[in-house]
Amino acid sequence: MKILILSCNTGGGHNSAAKAIKEIFDKKGHTCDITDVLAFGGQKASDLVCDTYIEIVKKTPNLFGKIYKMGNKVGQFNQENGKLRSPVYLVNKLYADALEDYIKQNEYDAVVCVHIFAAEAMTNLKKHGRVTVPFYFVATDYYCSPMLEETIPNKIFIAHKDSTFTYLNHGIDKKLLLPTGIPVSQMFLSKKDKTLSRQQLGLSNTDQVFLLMSGSMGFGDLIDTTKYIFDNGNENTRVIAITGHNEELYKSLESKFKDEKRLILVGFTDQVSDYMDASDVLLTKPGGLSSTEALAKGIALIHTAPIPGCESENVQFFTEHHLSLCAHEASDAGRIAVELMNDSFMRDQILAAQDHFRCQNSAQQIVDFIEGNFSS
Fold first, then answer.
1. For the chain, what percent of residues have pLDDT higher than 70?
2. Are 78 and 86 in contact (CB under 8 A)?
3. In the predicted model, what is the mean pLDDT of residues 149-172?
4. How many CB atoms lie within 10 A of CB 353?
5. Pairing mode, strands 31-36 and 2-7
6. Which spans in 82-234 are helix H?
7. Parallel, antiparallel or unpaired: strands 110-113 and 208-213
8. Is the pLDDT of residue 58 over 90?
């Protein structure tokens, strides 16, 4: 088979999901390409959309939350009305010609969309009979994406069976839904021995290791959290802070804690799995991918203050299922982290819930389904 995965650079999660699916297609001998869907409208347009998204989320998260809620209402109205289409659909159909040419010229057998923009563009092509290959949507959050109800994928792979009701509330046919889980890289599906992991990272078995992650784009305020942990820790306290691409955050932490030997400062890295293996408590923004990586790995998890919208919905799913704790305010994150570190019973409860609710090898399930559909 020859598969096209359409992603988007609004955060690292969508690309991570795309790469996780590609890993399995490649392993099974298929040809699989990942492409930024917005690039079909021109690289400048793609950069503008992604940069604008990141600026809004970083500087005015409440505005993003309002836009997210508006998208939910618009999508549901259009689904009920059956005639009008959302502005997101209208914008993404503008590059449909280029996308159609690319699919046909490369003779793809199926298209996998890991972002709503891609699903909107493919819907336009499918509605007008311009492409006949099946296309699939892969959820990268735990509740239904705004405006998904106006798309027409052949199948929707969702985060968990307990997320089903949110899709039904959006008017999506239950027959379209397959609860595979969110796909993560194979490296997160196994756990290294903690002693070995710590040796490789220069840590001791007696250390109490807090892992602080701010996402690939470096969202969040880690300084107050780090300070609280150090002020209320001991000589065995260790904080690993991963700042992603946020150089300003990296430099701020470096300056604030320049004499603090208990801090391990890391920028963007592909060793997140190793750091998780070595840590006792993880604090992370509640992105769908980072949360699922933690769930797959099995680690005592605290979600830091969510961005209103999909992240707050992710937190709701995780806390309702006892998979994580949540610090809704940045000032609470350090306190909750220290309390959890000192409460082995609570950590064990979180890990037990994760063992019960995690989906098994989601990327493999998705690829198996697409293969089966192709051969049938």
1. 84
2. yes
3. 94
4. 16
5. parallel
6. 87-92, 96-105, 116-127, 164-169, 194-200, 223-231
7. unpaired
8. no
209 beta partners = 238
pLDDT in tens, 64-77: 455 545 555 555 55
Q: How far is it, in rounded angstroms, from Cα 94 to Cα 273?
A: 39
| CB 296 within 8 Å of CB 184 | yes
Q: What is residue 90's predicted lDDT score, i.e. its pLDDT?
A: 72
Give me the DSSP letters along 45-67: HHHHHHHHHHHHHHH-HHHHHHH
**pTM of the predicted protein model:** 0.88
> Which secondary structure element, helix H or strand E, spans residue 23, and what is its range?
helix 13-27
Q: Report H helices in 170-246.
A: 194-200, 223-231
| Spatial separation of the C-alpha atoms in residues 306 and 31, rounded to whole Å | 37
Per-residue pLDDT of 221-249, as tens digits, reads 788 899 999 999 999 999 999 988 888 88
* 133 secondary structure, DSSP code: S
Per DSSP (E only), the strands in the chain are 2-7, 31-36, 110-113, 135-138, 155-158, 177-179, 208-213, 237-242, 263-266, 281-284, 300-303, 325-326
How many percent of the chain have pLDDT more than 90?
A: 70
Plot region of 156 (φ>0 → left; ψ -120 to 50 → alpha; else → beta): beta
Contact 287, 13 (CB under 8 A): yes
**Distances in whole angstroms, Cα of residue 343 to Cα of each of 104, 191, 234, 239, 302:** 57, 22, 16, 18, 13
